[in-house]
Amino acid sequence: MPLMSALSEDPADAAQGWHYDGETAIRHRVRAFIDGGHLHLVGAGEAFRAYRLVDLVAQPAQGSTRVYGLKARPGWQLGLEGPLPDGFAAQLPGAARYGGVIDRLGLWPAAALFAVIAAVTLVGLSYVPGVVVALVPRSVERQLGDAMVGDFGGRLCAAPAGQAALDTLARRLGADPAQARIEVAAIPMVNAVTLPGGRVIIFEGLLKQAESADEVAGVTGHELGHVAHRDVLATLVRQLGLSFLLGGLEGNVRGYTDLVLSSAYSRQAETAADGFAIDAMAHGDISPAATAAFFNRLSGGAAKKPGTKGEKSGVVKAAEMLDYVSSHPNSAGRAERFAAAARGHGGYAPVLTPVEWQALRTICSADPKVKRGNVIF
């Protein structure tokens, strides 16, 4: 509400203008002057009214007329026309060009400050998933992984001979059964995926396209690296925050599975997983040369011509392998790393015997209970 002024007369250094009181649509002619931290207005035949200067808000000018509003008084407006008395304008609020903070600091200093804040925020967020993952109990992670495995809908293969061969491969890689569980799914895609809680799923298509068990060992060792580093859980935290945990494991599990299958790990995570695989293969006396050859084929460096009847062309094989390339990029550089690890070393032994390798490749076709076909997530 206006404050009644104690002034007894209208000073000579008043500004001229117009005024809307926010209560009626009548435009009043007024004179304005400043005294005691207040803006005083007087119209013809009206008593003096006063408003605190700090409650005034500068609005866009109308030609040469300075326009002001009043906080918490919609419709209240004051226009001061023409040249103002000396020192008058300096006591009125200035126009806000960008916003409170920017106007106080200036455009470029504020832009620099916001850039620094953004950079610090991005760096901080890059560490948040790792910090959060370390606080999540492995039992909770295993529950989530077990729930996500259900999305494979009975396509997990369990032919005894093939499972025994897979267990042998896992032991040679030093996999801890308490931390990792490796399985094969009857899905004709050339891929492998790691789910939370140490669930590693090798797709049947990868077994069909692999030329040796040692190639599968390299891919499996890489996935075990993601298990050891809990990269899948970090990806979920990065993409979804804590909502997928706080929302309960009975929530959108299918959506979580789809996100894992469609996400690519960071270059740093892929490099660390490759390092884990190379170390695991070295401890198991498994040559990484075959894995290097596998990655070379992924990168298109060894496309084959059509072979015997019934064999797919190299072009078709390369197209199918794109399933793996899409989630495990930069195959050429990774091939060189595995090849370098094999140089100068000896004493390697095939991870599986020919009989075991054949049993692993047919683990799904030898299981009469398994469902077949692609899984649509």
How are the elements arranged and paired?
Blueprint: E1 3-4, E2 15-21, E3 28-35, E4 38-43, E5 49-52, E6 56-62, E7 65-70, E8 76-80, H1 100-105, H2 107-135, H3 138-149, E9 156-157, H4 160-172, E10 181-185, E11 192-195, E12 199-203, H5 204-209, H6 213-229, H7 231-240, H8 243-246, H9 253-262, H10 267-283, H11 289-298, H12 314-327, H13 331-342, H14 354-361
Parallel strand pairs: 10-12
Antiparallel strand pairs: 1-5, 2-3, 2-8, 3-4, 4-5, 6-7, 7-8, 9-10, 11-12
Helix pairs in contact: 2-7, 3-9, 4-14, 6-10, 6-11, 11-13
Please explain how this structure is put together.
The chain is of the alpha+beta class and 377 residues long. Helices cover 45% and strands 16% of the residues. It has helices spanning 100-105, 107-135, 138-149, 160-172, 204-209, 213-229, 231-240, 243-246, 253-262, 267-283, 289-298, 314-327, 331-342, 354-361; strands at 3-4, 15-21, 28-35, 38-43, 49-52, 56-62, 65-70, 76-80, 156-157, 181-185, 192-195, 199-203. The strands form two sheets. Strands 1-5-4-3-2-8-7-6 form an eight-stranded antiparallel β-sheet, with no helix packed on it. A four-stranded mixed β-sheet has the order 9-10-12-11, with helices on both faces. A hairpin with a 6-residue loop joins β2 (15-21) and β3. It is rod-shaped. It starts with a strand and ends in a 16-residue tail after the last helix. Mean pLDDT is 79; it is low at 1-8 and 302-320.
